[in-house]
Specification:
This protein is mainly alpha-helical. The protein has a three-stranded antiparallel beta sheet with strand order 1-2-3, with no helix packed on it. The longest helix is centred in the last third of the chain and has 37 residues.
Length: 265
């Protein structure tokens, strides 16, 4: 059953990565943060499940697959904040660039810290080093991810209330579509986050044999939410593929990188 699930996951993400690459090309530099992270997430899911299938076929340790599975949540969070950033810029071109980029960089830094803590903790756990340090690393990493998700929810809610002064009708509408995609994906990411945190903590405490090995729990709380979130982003990305044509920038109005109207005053 696990092999069948892994193979199905590989096939599905091989399909999903195609429109993700298309959206990365169409959204260009404005959407590179979100679409590059989502592409990385798809690649991690493909590679992780290939390693899992190989490990089970050869009866070898699947430590690498477990590690990739646990760190896969980080690029999904980074993709979500990337789409939020792209939507905010489309809806309000007059946003302060320094502040906006400062917040995005800090968010990336926090998720990276969580990723490092979890990687070190999982490696120690798989090597049989279950001690206070390993437990603290995993708990700290999980806590940082929870805080990052909560911050993303607050950021998204605040973004729903913001409106720019120099609005481009098409860009604003498409930016709103992408913002709603983020809003829809957040509960799905939350389910995946809960599964990851509970699995790690149960593994550390030695109480999660039934839950962590349950295929039903994995499908309902990990595989399906991730896929649905990816599909939501892909649908929104394709629907808003032309959102940056004629986008308003601080120095004037551009279409495909060409200055159309220079802003004066």
């Amino acid at each position: 059953m696990v092999d069948a699930l892994a193979v199905a996951t590989i096939v599905i993400y091989l399909v999903l990565i195609q429109p993700v690459i298309y959206c990365l090309w169409k959204h260009g530099r404005h959407g590179i943060l979100g679409w590059l992270a989502l592409q990385s997430f798809c690649l991690l899911r493909i590679i992780g499940n290939i390693v899992l299938v190989h490990a089970e076929a050869t009866n070898t340790s699947n430590t690498n697959a477990l590690l990739i599975s646990n760190v896969g949540l980080s690029p999904l969070l980074l993709a979500t904040v990337g789409f939020l950033h792209e939507a905010r810029r489309a809806r309000n071109p007059s946003l302060g660039r320094k502040l906006e980029w400062g917040l995005v960089i800090q968010y990336h830094f926090a998720v990276t810290i969580a990723l490092i803590l979890i990687i070190v903790g999982v490696v120690n756990l798989e090597n049989g080093t279950l001690n206070t340090t390993t437990t603290s690393l995993l708990q700290a990493g999980a806590a940082v991810l929870i805080v990052c998700w909560a911050a993303l929810v607050l950021w998204t809610r605040l973004s729903m209330r913001e409106q720019g002064k120099d609005l481009d009708a098409t860009a604003y509408t498409d930016g709103t579509k992408l913002l709603y995609a983020v809003l829809i994906a957040l509960p799905l990411v939350a389910v995946r986050l809960i599964y990851a945190v509970v699995s790690l903590l149960m593994e550390v405490n030695g109480t999660g044999s039934g839950f962590t090995t349950s295929v039903a729990a994995k499908v309902l709380m990990s595989v399906v939410p991730e896929m649905l979130a990816t599909i939501v982003f892909v649908v929104a990305g394709v629907a808003t593929r032309d959102m940056h044509k004629g986008v308003q920038e601080p120095g004037g109005r551009y279409r495909d990188g060409v200055l159309l109207v220079e802003r004066r005053g």
